[in-house]
Amino acid sequence: MSTISRRIVLLSSAALAGAAFLGPALADDLKITIGYQTVVEPSKVPQADGAYEKATKATIDWRKFDSGADVIAAVASGSVDIGYVGSSPLAAAASRELPIQTIFIVGLIGQSEALVARNGAGIAEVADLAGKKVAVPFVSTTHYSLLAALKHEGVDPKSVEILNLRPPEIAAAFSRGDIDAAYVWDPALGQIKTTGKVVLDSSQVAAWGAPTFDAWIVRTDFAEKNPEAVRDFVKVTGAAYAEFLAKPDAWSVSSPQAAAIAKLTGAKLEEVPQLLKGYVFPTLEEQASDKFLGGGTVKAVEATSAFLKEQGKIDAVLPDYSKYVTSKYVTQALASN
Questions:
Q1: Residues 129-165, buried b or exposed e (16+ Cβ, 10 A)?
Q2: Residue 329: which of 284, 296, 283, 282 has the closest Cα?
């Protein structure tokens, strides 16, 4: 064999050995697609500073969505692995038997979602919505809250022209005077409040017996293949909440946390501290309790599904929703602390 031939064989062998060495590393390069929304809450901080990537050792594609219904559609198509949704789209998805699991309760919604009437629209209370144009993202928590408020106040939903608009579309339609009121969250909520007044918020609707919450969900197949990544995602999220709950006043207008949240959500920086108070955030320890993932969340999804069925928004209610909620990952996150 000539010297040139031997060199070719040796170089080829080295290349193959190198490929064999690099192969597993490349195969282990986990990629996660996460669908988030522009809600003002503590996990925006680790999202901004790369903490999720560091903890999961994964490449993360963060995709912004305008509503939970859009997130659910992306999860259903397989283009999103982990997503941020409200309790109403979560219940609708579970009722359609979408293979998902609820892994973290972001918070109970209070003042962070509200029904706002445009100045001059002649709306002072829920009863005044009859004959008016009201915009809301369909199958969202605000849609659920609006229907619940109408039911509580004895207003026939058919007497209200309820329009399906995404938050950015709501803000634009409100400013043009195309709609009389809207039930939405920030940053659209902050925008429409400048030319309108709050009629009620979700804390009042919760007091009437129809609480709402936001949550992180995961595709079941992704979780089964990547349990450690899901655990670490939950752990980072829990740590952000613990930091905020320990010193909420430290997340002031001048804080880097508020700046990061404002940049990611589009909310006004000066409003971030107050908006954070619009939620009740459970700790990581509380997540696994009977109040949340240990039982309460299943009951909440069941109740929401029953209401959606009553309102004709879903076709059927399942006999059991327990497989769509799990405390497994918060328990593992706590154990790994």
A1: bbebbbbbbbbbbbbbbbbbbbbbeebeeeebebbeb
A2: 284
Integer angstrom CA distances of residue 307 from 12, 104, 145, 148: 66, 23, 11, 8
Could you tell me if 168 and 137 are in contact, meaning their C-beta atoms sit under 8 angstroms apart? no
Residue 239 has pLDDT above 80, yes or no: yes
Q: CA–CA distance from 69 to each of 85, 115, 141, 143 (Å)?
A: 8, 19, 10, 11
End-to-end CA distance of the chain: 61
Mean pLDDT of the region 277-294:
91
Segment 298-325 mean pLDDT:
94
Would you mind telling me the total number of residues written for the chain in this entry? 337
Model pTM score: 0.82
Q: What distance lies between CA 315 and its chain's CA centroid? A: 24
Parallel/antiparallel/unpaired status of strands 133-136 and 100-109 = unpaired
**Helix 328-335 × helix 227-246 angle, to 10°:** 70
- The pLDDT score that the predictor gives to residue 322 is 97
